[in-house]
Amino acid sequence: MRCVGTALDDAAPAVQSGADTPHSKVLVLITRITGRLVHLTGSEATLSVGAFEYEVFVPEFVRRQLQGSLDQEVSLRTIEYLEGNPQKGGRLTPRLIGFLNDAEKEFFESICSVDGVGVKTALRAMVRPVREVAVAIEEQNVKELTALPGIGPATAERIVAKLRRKMAKFALMIARDLPPEQAGQQSVVQEAFEALVSLGHSAPDARQKIDTVLAAGKKFKSVEDLLTDLYQKERR
User: Which phi and psi angles does 28 have, rounded to 5°?
Assistant: First the structure.
């Protein structure tokens, strides 16, 4: 991936190496990437495009939607930003963040526009569907927002103060079109993930545990069934 120039937008979210800053330096270069999804792990998706493979960061809610698309062609709307701190002798590295549609991308950019919320914080926090987070902001539900990884009470208050009047359209988003049985499974997986996080597991640990259970191809009708299966596997 080639970095073209260093024209920067002070109004966009910023990331420095190892830290978040409220003002980003975002490149508007690659706005969409389409290719075969060859790898999906943690917060990263790898797409094969011609002779190249591109690493794209994805929030958790996007990663879950991509789980059933391995070895298939996918198309992601992207944000490109520069990571690094040249003032400390480091280099600027271009990074991509991917979303399944423009609405998800716009919502993420809105979250990053809040003071104290950088790209890394937003990536870590967005473990729930856009609609659910938007509803929490619209209803000024600070308690629900603080349940998101990395979002403390002060940050949640700032998110509500800045975005509450801009969330109506996101709160009306509908779930991505899925077959009924798959849509139900997605809901169970999401609720199980949130249950593990609420029990003190880190987001990556919760993802790894759920992925291990789902790898067997078994379908679960309820969160309790999934967590019971997980518990039994860990007891063996």
Answer: -95, 80
3-state secondary structure 188-230: HHHHHHHHHHHCCCCHHHHHHHHHHHHCCCCCCCCHHHHHHHH
Residue-range domains of the chain with CATH: 12-171 (2.40.50.140), 180-235 (no CATH)
Q: For residue 97, what are its two tokens? A: 């963040």
Tokens 């991917």 sit on residue: 98
Q: If you average pLDDT over every residue of the chain, what do you get?
A: 80
pLDDT digits (tens, 9 = 90+) for 158-183: 999 999 989 888 887 765 544 444 55
Amino acid code (one letter) for 122? A
Torsional class of 89: left (φ above 0), alpha (ψ -120 to 50), beta (otherwise) = left
Q: Which of 79-88, 182-191, 207-216 has the weakest average pLDDT?
A: 182-191
Q: What is the crossing angle of helices 130-138 and 102-112, to 10°?
A: 50
